[in-house]
Amino acid sequence: MEPLIRVAGLRYRYDEGIQALGGVDFILCPGETVALFGPNGSGKTTFLLHLVGLLEGEGTVEVCGLPVEKKNLAAIRQKVGILFQDSDDQLFMPTVFDDVAFGPLNLGLDKTAVEQRVRECLALVGMEGAAARAPYHLSAGEKRRVALAGVLAMEPQILILDEPVTFLDPPGRSALLSILHRLPQAKILVSHDIELARELATRAVFFLEGRVAASGPVDEIVERYRWDSRAVSR
Amino acid sequence: MHHVTLDAWSRLPSPLHRLDARAKIAAALAVLVSLALTRQLSPELLGGYSLLITTLVLLSRVPLGGLLLRAGLVLPFALGVAALNLFGGDPGRALALLGKSYLSAYMVLLLLATTPLHALLRGLEWFGAPRFFLMVAQFLYRYLFVLSEQAQHMRRARQCRAGGRSWPAAGSAVAVLFARSYDRAERIHRAMLARGFQGHFILLDPPAAGAREWLSLLLLAAALGVLHLALWNR
């Protein structure tokens, strides 16, 4: 099966000279959900930003067969949707409707198609009644669901979820999880939440000092790196 | 979640709130221009304008006392110019200036209290206000809530560690807030790019103004006409 994402030998150094990625190899296949584990500062977020061309490093990055380069960015950003860790960064338009419509309008869809897509995506995340509300009037869980609707409105083939349940209360978390379970897209999940990864992911990848140190079943990776609460006693 | 008073008022249910923002902007502009062009603000005209705006306030269900009080904020600024006229031997003009300033602020506040900011900005854009300026205003308003929340968290953290009020502490808090806002601006820009932003905002056209809007404008114009014709130079 042709992979959706293929990364080989990706290196990146920040302006201040810090080597963030030191040769990352990674593959994402259709239907997969891959959890990215690793210590803070191990390069996970830097890696994700390369997948949509928000950072440019050395090496090969291909999304749906397209090399990540300037001329392909519009197409790639339509295929890869990112749910950022802080929903306030993602909900920048004055109303929920405008925010979910932001992506489809950038894709050049006409008014009827945009309105239909906004309605569908808000219904998908259970926020159909919130179209006229302002983002700062929403709770953390509602903000996360609206942000997800905004991402889904682009009809992406791949979803990147950066700590999707952080700051959510248990009902908010389970509401979001049940939505995520229903979504057919291939997903990359960045999280320190092992339980979440066990629920969602089909495979885990461990980042260490800007490289992929290991890849395998979630429990095997957790066990090998003692990547759960036992890690405290290391 | 924080609500500023005007924001809460702008979401009340009333016939005035339901009107298209463009009609309300046009009406407010008509009142402002008509006030500005009034050479001598006789007590009858002053009363007439007050009655007209107060009737609209009562229709809008916005708390009258709160609006009257807030409109007073313009007086310290107007007082300076009025004092010049007073000492220049023209007390009538000084009083008229104060009256006009107060009534103008009263009218503008009514517009703000009956129109959510996003609708107001869209309306102003329709009238040809520079889009860049409106976008800055929109982002500022959207993130003011987030910024004030961060500032409050920092204040509490300082208080928890028995930190008192001090200029150096306040200075460093402002510096930290600035640095965080700068980081956030970068993250917001990334989130915009990730959803296909290509340098300019694409918005759906607002629906055309209906009979209700035209009728309201006609009524207001008639009221202004009657006011000036009936009380002309009395």
Compact overview of the structure:
The complex is a heterodimer of chains A (234) and B (234). By secondary structure, chain A is an alpha/beta fold.
Structure description:
The complex is a heterodimer of chains A (234) and B (234). By secondary structure, chain A is an alpha/beta fold. Chain A has nine helices and ten strands. Chain A has helices at 44-51, 73-79, 87-90, 96-106, 111-124, 140-152, 170-182, 194-200, 218-224, and strands at residues 5-13, 19-28, 33-37, 58-63, 66-67, 80-83, 158-162, 186-190, 203-208, 211-216. In chain A, the strands form two sheets. A six-stranded mixed beta sheet of chain A has the order 6-7-8-3-9-10, sandwiched between helices. In chain A, strands 2-1-4-5 form a four-stranded antiparallel beta sheet, with helices on one face. Chain A is globular and about 45 Å long. Chain A starts with a strand and ends in a 10-residue tail after the last helix. Helix content of chain B is 76%, strand content 0%. Chain B has eleven helices and no strands. In chain B, helix 3 runs antiparallel to helix 7, helix 4 packs antiparallel against helix 11 and helix 8 packs antiparallel against helix 9. The longest helix of chain B is centred in the middle third of the chain and has 30 residues, at 131-160. The radius of gyration of chain B is 22 Å and the shape is globular. The N and C termini of chain B lie far apart (52 Å). The model of chain B has no long low-confidence stretch (mean pLDDT 86).
Order of helices and strands of chain B: HHHHHHHHHHH
Number of strands of chain B: 0
Largest sheet of chain B: none
- C-alpha Rg of chain A (nearest Å): 18 Å
What is the molecular shape of chain B?
Answer: globular
The radius of gyration computed from the alpha-carbon positions of chain B, rounded to a whole number of angstroms, is 22 Å
Count the E strands of chain A: 10
With helices defined by DSSP (H or I, 4 residues minimum), what is the helix count of chain A? 9
Our estimate of the beta-strand percent of chain B is under 5%
Shape of chain A: globular
Gap between N and C termini of chain B, in Å?
52 Å
Describe the sheet with the most strands of chain A: 6 strands, mixed
Quaternary state reads heterodimer
The unreliable regions of chain A are none
Terminal Cα separation of chain A, in Å? 40 Å
Q: Considering DSSP H and I runs of 4 or more, what fraction of the residues of chain B is helical?
A: over 70%
